[in-house]
Amino acid sequence: MVEGEREGAAHLGARTELTRDDLDGARDAQDRTGLDRRADRLEEQLARVNEVQYQLTSQGRLDVTLLLERASTKLQLLIDRIKTASYGYAGFFDAIKVDEDALDKLYRFDERMLDASDELEITVGRLVEAIQGEEPIIEQANGLIRQLENLNDTYSKRQDVLLA
């Protein structure tokens, strides 16, 4: 082996163990993917709500269309908040350091949010069924808005989990 090759091989082999930063980075990447999947699922529901809204508009049912516009706005807000969420990252100037226990609490919190997202999918499904059956849907639209308000309020408490 030539001297330069030996130095290169030594350089490659110099870092054989994973550091805490490596593990946190891998965990952050995995969690980011999970958040993206959740946001994708919510975007699917947004598309369904928008389709219902389009169908109602074409039927001239503008009273319900305005309610669904409110629901769409609240759902888009939730999606945007999830897409910009971070896990266990504190910026260079941030005084907050996130520890392992806080991350575990955050994961549990986000799992509960995922369960609530499943419930949202059911609610949107009922809304779609109601419009296809030409049933009155003002009550379902109001229920969707309440559910989205609760989801956004709950998500607002996410920062509290990090700071607790």
Describe what you observe in this structure.
With 164 residues, the protein is an all-alpha fold. It has one domain (20-163). It is 79% helix and 0% strand. The protein has six helices and no strands. α2 packs antiparallel against α3 (62-83), α2 packs parallel to α4 (100-132) and α4 (100-132) packs antiparallel against α5. The longest helix is centred in the N-terminal third of the chain and has 39 residues, at 20-58. The chain starts with a helix and ends with a helix. The model is unreliable at 5-27 and 89-95 (pLDDT under 50).
Computed Rg: 23 Å
- Report how far apart the termini are: 56 Å
Shape: elongated
Low-confidence stretches: 5-27, 89-95
Q: What is the number of E strands?
A: 0
Binned, the helix content reads over 70%
Number of contiguous helices = 6
Q: How do the helices and strands follow one another from N- to C-terminus?
A: HHHHHH
Question: What is the mean pLDDT?
Answer: 75
Largest sheet: none
What is the SS-derived class? mainly alpha
Strand content: under 5%
Q: Please give the domain count.
A: 1
Summarize the entry for a quick read:
This protein is mainly α and 164 residues long. Helix content is 79%, strand content 0%.
Key words describing this protein structure:
6 helices, 164 residues, 79% helix, mainly alpha, elongated
Could you outline the blueprint of secondary structure elements for this entry?
Layout: H1 3-13, H2 20-58, H3 62-83, H4 100-132, H5 138-156, H6 158-163
